[in-house]
Amino acid sequence: MNKRWTISKIKEYVENNSESTLLSTEYHGFSQRLLFKCACGSNFEKTFTRFKNKNQRKCDVCQPPKESN
Ligand SMILES: [Zn+2]
Questions:
Q1: Ligand 1 centre from 42 Cα, in Å?
Q2: Average pLDDT of 35-60?
Q3: Coil/strand/helix, residue 8
Q4: Does the reported pTM lie above 0.85?
Q5: Sign of CA dihedral 7, 23, 65, 29
Q6: 3 C-alpha vs ligand 1 centroid, how far in Å?
Q7: How many A from CA of 14 to the centre of ligand 1?
């Protein structure tokens, strides 16, 4: 099904596809919340699935959540 992600691939994806950076150093699966640093300097947590598939690539201040899903 999904391609296998590693923490280094995720870090690369984050740096190439957003203005945020990845702070987490371990990845244990899609349900894990990862720690990111937004371009504004705030840290935020999100699963990689949301970051990638739902385009939630900034903190809640820069990109307020639309719905509670
Ligand atoms: Zn921000």
A1: 6
A2: 96
A3: helix
A4: yes
A5: positive
A6: 29
A7: 14
